[in-house]
Write a structure and sequence with these properties.
Strand order of the largest sheet: 26-27-28-29-30-31-32
Strand content: 35-45%
Largest sheet: 7 strands, antiparallel
CATH class of the domain at 260-384: Mainly Beta
Number of helices: 3
Helix content: under 10%
CATH architecture of the domain at 260-384: Beta Barrel
CATH topology of the domain at 260-384: Lipocalin
Radius of gyration: 24 Å
Structural class: mainly beta
Shape: globular
């Protein structure tokens, strides 16, 4: 009898042990520290950037692969965007119509595809604009598919720093994450709140930056104003139509002398002079001489995509090529991976050494959606 009990206990322990081992299996962690050099486009736009990259196959179906090129979510969707806040937008057209839903990191459908008008990324606030096709009004969807802020607006922007621009007519205001109207609808335009400030234009032509209490903090005659990052934002001079950079007290770090500019990412801002692009540092000094035909998204993870002699490559903070110019197009690095287009029409992903992680065996299907999946397409740039 004791032997039977002992056998039972041993079997039970073995079953428990096997079960525990199975349950203890950790799921892969695709997150990364892509902000080690400071704020960049990925850390600004995405909540918890992942190394899961959307890609499409020869049948023009989209799925996701990891940083090693292994397919994690099989291609099956009409379109897919990057993960942010553990959600990735996908477009399903299996019914003959295009509906938008969201996946989780495991590939499960977190929000069923039933929406038609929606933004690309779930921001840090976990609230995303979504439209109602019957009423043509816009509300905000949460990560579980609920609508905590109902359909009621004609125009909105995505949330950033807890505030979102909304409008029901000619004038714009801003709401908080509870849907409370914090900034009255009294402006012609309200930009993103960045470092507590948003660029606004009043009906009487007043320009500048307000805080979240609707107080003007910076006033000027700028026609445009960019995002504040590391205490600096670009602005446009209405007379010369040139761009410079101001501090949060409204004083100029760099006077308006450039044809076009980008945001300060990782301590450097792209600037255009005499039809060529270069970079200044956060002291306003020229760090990398203007010599490039174009730039895309600025520095991210210590590298910036630049175009010269019709081809794209990647430079470091010193302006030296780390990845030689050999691509037809290029995006910023996120989690050590960047999307590139090759001269022969194929596309793929490379690592920080420039080595191919994955490359399509077919010509890339270029479309507006394909280009929009490049993070650099969401850059805040002044001028052209």
């Amino acid at each position: 009898m004791c032997r039977t009990k002992l056998l039972f206990i041993i079997c039970l322990a073995l079953i428990c042990s096997l079960g525990c081992k199975k349950n203890d299996k950790e799921k892969p962690d695709y997150s990364c520290n892509c902000g080690q050099y400071g704020e960049n486009l990925a850390t600004f736009l995405l909540d918890r950037p992942l190394s899961l990259m959307p890609f499409y196959d020869a049948n023009k179906k989209w799925g996701f692969m990891d940083g090693s090129g292994e397919v994690i979510i099989a291609p099956q969707y009409h379109m897919a965007y990057r993960f942010s806040n553990n959600r990735a937008l996908i477009v399903d057209n299996s019914t003959g119509k295009e509906f938008v839903g969201f996946l989780n990191e495991e590939g499960g459908m977190a929000i069923q595809p039933k929406y038609r008008f929606i933004a690309s990324f779930f921001p840090k606030e976990g609230l995303l604009p979504v439209g109602n096709l019957q009423t043509w009004k816009i509300g905000f969807l949460d990560r579980d598919g609920n609508l905590p802020i109902p359909y009621q607006y004609n125009l909105v922007r995505e949330f950033h720093e807890g505030m979102a621009t909304v409008s029901n007519g000619m004038l714009q205001g801003a709401i908080d994450t509870q849907g409370n109207l914090k900034i009255p609808m009294e402006y012609i335009s309200i930009g993103f709140f960045t470092e507590g400030l948003a660029f606004v234009i009043t009906p009487l032509g007043k320009h500048g930056y307000i805080n979240k209490d609707n107080q003007f903090v910076i006033e000027g005659d700028y026609t445009e104003g960019g995002w504040f990052v590391a205490g600096l934002a670009w602005v446009n001079d209405p007379i010369s139509h040139k761009y410079g950079f101001i501090r949060k007290d409204g004083s100029f770090l760099v006077n308006p002398v450039y044809q076009a500019v980008g945001t300060f990412w990782e301590g450097f801002a792209a600037v255009k002079s005499n039809s060529a692009w270069g970079f200044i540092n956060n002291s306003g000094a020229m760090a990398i001489a203007c010599q490039f035909e174009d730039v895309a998204g600025g520095f991210s993870e210590g590298l910036a995509p630049v175009k010269k002699n019709g081809k794209w490559g990647y430079i470091n903070f010193s302006g030296s090529y780390i990845i030689n110019p050999e691509f037809d197009d290029a995006d910023v690095f996120v989690c050590g991976i960047a999307m590139v287009d090759y001269i022969d029409g194929t596309y793929g992903f490379i690592n920080r050494e420039g080595k191919s992680v994955w490359r399509s065996a077919y010509n890339a299907w270029k479309s507006e959606n394909f280009e929009a999946d490049k993070l650099s397409c969401h850059e805040d740039r002044g001028g052209h």
